[in-house]
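Appendix C reproduces, verbatim, an entry submitted by the partner laboratory led by Prof. M.T., so that reviewers can inspect both the input and the predicted structure.
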Amino acid sequence: MFSCFYRRGRSAALLACVLAGSFSPAVYAQQPRTAKDGVYTDAQAIKGHTLYADRCAQCHGATLGGDIAPPLVGNEFLGNWAEVPLADLVDKIKNTMPADDPGKLTQQQSADIVSYILQAGKFPAGRAELASDAAALKLITLPPVATPARTPSAVAGGQAPSFPAFGSLNAVMRGILFPSSNIIFDVQTRDPAKKVTGASTSDSTLTDRFADVYQGWLLVDIAAVALVESAPLMLTPGRRCENGKPVPVDRPDWIKFTQGLVEAGQAAYKASQSRNQDAVIEATNQVAESCLNCHRTYRDRRNIARCEVQ
């Protein structure tokens, strides 16, 4: 990246080389990189291995191949984390792992565990440790992984089963989207990190009512997942609105609104994974806006001829 040049004799040339060399690591560290570029050291991976064996192996398996929790090596893992900043992976480990005792690992320990994951995934070691600060980690990603084409023979029987629409759009929204979004909205007034005692009064929130089953951040996680996974149900051909009219699944604006809901759910999930109440509160704005965009067009009484989803 830097070249040496002669200036006023040999000593000046040597000084130019030294200065260039002193700048290059800092500049290089600021460039986007992938795990193929040697972003951790073998010594760091050894520390990570010790931590992994103590805190992670019970669920993810001794060889990272997965057990009661997903694998941390191979195409399945890379398919989920390819092109995602390592900052997100470190944060997930720090904030949510181990699942039965989260929040006990430090940022540095989490980075060390990621270094071991990289080593186990056959990514090369380098001369500098994987940094633990978020700014540096955001510049490093796992490389993309090629996804093999899916052929009919890969599906049992040669054809995937179809699932026609069963409930109305209102039933889907009231049964899945409404309760899930309101669990996320509850974060505006209560910290998921604080234990909630069960409640059965008529004015209790949805978070209260689930308190005896799921608690805290896990409840917010699964509510966000429910938004993402249920949004495509709004595009199921043959589904009807409450007034019997077909859901406009082929309209560009309806498709756009559905995609907006998916993105809002993903944003809420990412915020929940940070275990930061303010981050989730910020994400609720996107969730609310995604709902409002659709309601303005399709729930307004003036547009009832198109589809009512109230």
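The mean pLDDT is 82. Additional entries are available on request from the coordinating office.
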